[in-house]
Amino acid sequence: MPESPEVAELASFLTAHAAGRTITAFEVLLPKAVKTAQPAPGDLVGRRIDGVVRRGKMIDIEAGSAQDHLHAIVHFGHDGWVLWHDTAPGGSRRAGDATLMARVRLDDGSGFDLTDAGQWKALTVHVVAEPGEVPAVAKLGIDPLDDDLDDERFAALFATVLGGRKKQIKALLQDQSAFAGIGNAYSDEILHAARISPVTHAASLSPLEVARLAHATRAGLRSARAARVGIPPGELRAAKHAALRVHRRTGQACPVCGDRVREHMFSGAAAQYCPTCQTGGEALPGR
Length: 287
Prior knowledge:
hydrolase, elongated, Helicase, Ruva Protein, domain 3, alpha+beta, lyase activity, four-stranded antiparallel beta sheet, 8 helices, N-terminal domain of MutM-like DNA repair proteins
């Protein structure tokens, strides 16, 4: 699943390559991807792209005209992404292995595809006048990549974010209404760095553990963001996977202590963790 460090670099790439260009076509190949009737994707045609920004794990393509601005909010789901073309293919010919959901053409002949490689095709597009009209944007929680957020403020806000939620810490980190931009992979990486078990109930964390979590979250995501700068969209996911220390590393040696990375299944999801670093040497139930 795309997460904030990679989505941030994707937004930067699209801004660098598409800002100032006029949209000449917004072709929807899988209608179920579009979640708004009015405005429609066709209303973006003739508008100039002002820029692309990240909102959590989504991108916001802002396109303006002399009268007003519209936002195309793209939520990638689990397997969605963008495929850039210096010269957009003719017709609706697919380029790449994923399903072509929509194709955006620009006035210089370039363009990009919105694709989804997953079974359920979960990528969605909302075209709105204001980003807050999209429910997934309106409910976004704290974004650890925000420049105004430091470790102390993160820790101070933790109790507010927790509220009445009775969640294990891994689930809370992935809750977009609590922390925006974190998914399955980076939640594993953060908890490993913070030396916290993924099944620990968030409300039971000590002040020291919350402080470690704050630092691991911000430092981990910021380091990943810096490492992705300049990497083209087609290589971002591979770069992410190559840098992971425990996620998708079941059976391999922990890079910190040398113990074997294990996998724990819960609520239909999986967590990878190191028993020595995170659970006091105790192995959680596996598959």
